[in-house]
Write a structure and sequence with these properties.
alpha/beta, Methane Monooxygenase Hydroxylase, Chain G, domain 1, Rossmann fold, Helicase, Ruva Protein, domain 3, 5-stranded parallel sheet, two-stranded parallel ribbon, about 55% helix
């Protein structure tokens, strides 16, 4: 895949990159053979089998993983890259994006390595500390080995919608430089017999091709990790069993496979999933407090940066004060982002109506924010926030939850309603 002169240089300075480059070439050859088969089948009105599509998907996942290993090794080199090494770095950066896009064409749950960092998440410092500690342990498996910690690497984030749980999953994957796999109930459940179990196997088989590790993020996990009852259909029990078996190996024996999940209904999760060896950390992601709201607003408006969004007749502090106009209710980070974007849309509307062609952006006026806040009521009541806060007091993740405790948990959320 690399030019011959590049191989000669890399063989001297970074022989492991040369080896990975050769392996990428081998995988690319197999992918090409499968694509040729696909083309021949389509010419005769046929299509690839599900097994062939899975092989093609896993091939793109593997070569994406190899490409990122090459990129990381070049970026972490202890010396300044020469011209040929820089060319290889740029080539693989472009190829990695292409491989990711191709894997998505064949049904991959992989989202690549996210660009979002912990610095992009304003406020929520206590949650950051927990997630950062979790990531540190995942990056240093020797700590788990030395202290004989048998629990896997699983973190469950719970809290009201819009509080930033997905952002933490993205930042964790970015910190570890690992691809993020995002799974939702729609990716798992299928009405055809055996397809849901196959979907689970396909996701984990694909993760197996990420040799450096991977981060699995299960969104809306209460639907996937739901409590099993005697009324469950056989296929759903089979899916649950498949998930439990696959999750057991996360983070063990030096594996850099990490599980993160999010839910806004933690009471609905099967206690079997909350065992210590599956989720070692349960963390509440609360609505932002005043300081966090200020940080979110400043971040969204890019305050202090060259491309700062200008304000007129209103300050950041006054916007913060507006968020406190509903005692007993809390705005989430998503709420605030939506309000600021609504104010920006009003500025754009004014530019359109006045045919502003000066090339200058209009500042955001107080009246824009007043109208935006009037449209958007806070998402989270104090009662609901307290329910999430109290959840950790009602659960022991190392033991199965008794029926009485299950009932009390259900009462915490919406009076036990589904």
């Amino acid at each position: 895949m690399a030019k011959q002169e590049e191989k000669k240089i890399l063989d001297i300075r970074l022989p492991e990159v040369l080896s990975l480059d050769a392996e990428a070439g081998s995988v690319a050859t197999k992918i090409k053979a499968m694509l040729d088969k696909k083309k021949a089948l389509e010419a005769s009105g046929k299509t690839l089998s599900e097994e062939d599509i899975g092989e093609l998907r896993n091939g793109y996942t593997l070569i994406y993983s190899i490409a990122n290993s090459i990129i990381n090794k070049l970026l972490s080199a202890s010396f300044t890259l020469n011209e040929d090494e820089t060319r290889m770095l740029n080539t693989y950066k472009a190829r990695a994006e292409n491989f990711l896009a191709k894997s998505r064409l064949y049904g991959s749950a992989m989202r690549g390595i996210p660009s979002r960092t912990f610095d992009d998440i304003a406020g929520l410092d206590e949650v950051k500390e927990v997630v950062d500690s979790f990531v540190y342990m995942a990056e240093h498996p020797e700590l788990l080995s030395h202290y004989n910690m048998e629990g896997g690497l699983g973190l469950l984030m719970y809290g009201a919608p819009g509080t930033g749980k997905t952002m933490f999953a993205e930042a964790a994957a970015n910190r570890m430089k690992l691809p993020l796999f995002v799974v939702t109930p729609a990716d798992i459940y299928n009405s055809y017999v055996g397809q849901s179990e196959k979907a689970v196997r396909d996701i984990f088989d694909e993760m197996d091709n990420c040799r450096s590790g991977a981060v699995l993020f299960v969104d809306e996990c209460e639907s996937i990790f739901s409590k099993r009852t005697g009324n469950d259909e056989t296929w759903k029990s089979s899916v649950t069993t498949e998930l439990l078996q696959r999750m057991n190996g996360f983070g063990r024996n030096g594996s850099r496979r990490v599980l993160l999940a999010s839910t806004n209904r933690p009471d609905k999760i099967d206690p079997a999933y909350l065992r210590y060896k599956r989720f070692t950390n349960l963390v509440h992601v609360p609505p932002p407090d005043v300081n966090a709201l200020r940080a979110i607003i400043e971040h969204k408006l890019r305050i202090g940066k060259p491309d700062e969004i200008e304000l007129h007749n209103i300050s950041v502090e006054q916007i913060v004060e507006m968020t406190q106009a509903h005692p007993g209710y809390y705005y989430t980070g998503a709420d605030i982002s939506g309000i600021i974007e609504e104010a920006c849309r009003q500025a754009i509307d004014k530019m359109i109506k006045t045919r502003n062609e000066s090339g200058k952006f209009l500042p955001l006026e107080r009246e824009y924010f007043e109208r935006a806040f009037a449209k958007k009521y806070p998402s989270v009541s104090r009662a609901l926030a307290d329910q999430y806060e109290n959840f950790s007091k009602h659960i022991d993740s190392s033991e199965a939850i008794g029926e009485e405790k299950k009932a009390s948990l259900a009462e915490l959320f919406h009076g036990g309603n589904n």
